[in-house]
Amino acid sequence: MTxxxxxxxxxLAGTAPPPAKAPSFFKQLRLANGNQYEMLPMAVYEQxxxxxxxxxxxMLWVNDPDGVRRVLLDNVANYPKTDMEKRFFTAMFxxxxxxxxxxxxxxxxxxxxPSFDPRSVASxxxxxxxxxxxxxxxxxxxANNPEVDIAEEMKLxxxxxICKTMFSxxxxxxxxxxxKTLGFTQxxxxxxLLDILPIIxxxxxxxxxxxxxxxxxxxxxxxxxxxxxxxxxxxxxxKDLLTRLIAAKDPDNGAGMNATxxxxxxxxxxxxxxxxxxxxxxxxxxxxxxxxxxxxRLHAELDAVLGGRTPTAEDVPxxxxxxxVLEEAMRxxxxxxxxxxxxxxxxxxxxxxxxxxxxxIAIAPWVLHRHRTLWDSxxxxxxERFNVQRSVGRPRFAYLPFGGxxxxxxxxxxxxxxxxxxxxxxxxxxxxxxKDGETxxxxxxxxxxxxxxxxxxxxxxxxx
Length: 464
Ligand code: HEM
Known about the structure:
Blueprint: H1 3-8, H2 25-31, E1 49-50, E2 59-62, H3 65-74, H4 83-93, H5 102-112, H6 118-140, E3 147-149, H7 150-167, H8 172-188, H9 200-232, H10 241-247, H11 259-273, H12 275-290, H13 292-306, H14 320-332, E4 342-343, E5 348-350, E6 353-355, E7 360-362, H15 365-368, H16 388-391, H17 412-427, E8 433-434, E9 442-445, E10 447-450, E11 455-457
The structure holds protoporphyrin IX containing FE (HEM).
């Protein structure tokens, strides 16, 4: 590399300046295997509303917090998810929260909400911490400074955690089955521009749908078996997420969910709740390895508050810098870089721009979190942005890792608690370092992940 190359190489992966102009359709197809958001032109990051010249109907990128608020909250009834997204989510999750709409969604959300409130989440925390401790022992048992793919490691850990949180001790059989099914489904869900072409598009979509159905059959059978077992003796069942979902009742009329509805929600929670947390943690390790000063501050907080012991749910509010590290990591690398595309049912107006019925609305945390009008030096990892003083006055809809409005992530508290506990357990002993010569590129597959994994050396901290 020449000196000029080195100077032009961005410090952190995915932080190169956006192109002045979007690449051609064919170039976009060629680059579709990476992170599509990196192809967006600079104007998206500068304008409140961006209207690309599209080949396939009218679309608006809404990048202004008031505009986002209008779509996700103030006029939410006018902006349901698009039929294409609903169709695919339904192929996997049936009528689960991600895919359902209207009264079904409303009832399920109400019935499920208590299982995700802070009190319930606190009751899952011991299983999360214990699973992470066991996982750290698996790291301890590896040879000195072993090299691992940290993206795969985090996927395995979060899968183990969601399985334990959901199924307690019955989880072991399901871990492998679920991991395979979800991995496959993510690949099948790799949408690109070919999927919206006439003739080819519908055929590709149908083939993906069929593949998803076939792949879910085994996992479904295992989940139905487990629901039936639990229903036989609910009173003595462990108080995990599965028991709570089976027992949950609508506070207004006492109605609960049947086995199919519980199955749909179980799959939804798996799919929505494990890879997202895994990629969050992967990017956290990457960022800390690149910025030792921030890592040292994190270690100092963990050492001062925990002194080497296992963290609990009660410790979480006492770890503000840990929280800031997680929040800033999700700003630069939002685990869900785009929330589901919405479509306007009726004419509307967003930030003074007329929206015609049928217009597709793209809202992307990736764009919002790097928007030039909302953040200083958005390409810099600076956890202190999220301290109390600097957060004052930031619009709620400028920062959207968990979405917003009534369809905000139901698992947000659970995810933050889980990520804090994982970071607190593992960073007390380890400071992973990127393998020499490892280059990191981004890829979007619903979640934002490192394209070819991320090889890291598991260095033990000197103090540990
Ligand atoms: C860091 C981790 C996570 C991130 C970044 C994340 C992000 C999101 C986002 C952006 C949405 C809104 C999508 C939209 O409006 O189109 C969402 C919805 C959802 N998330 Fe999460 N999520 C995370 C973890 C979890 C966990 C741990 C669970 C469950 C255990 C979960 C369950 C769900 C469900 C069920 C929905 C649909 C909610 C609804 O439509 O009512 N998520 N998530």
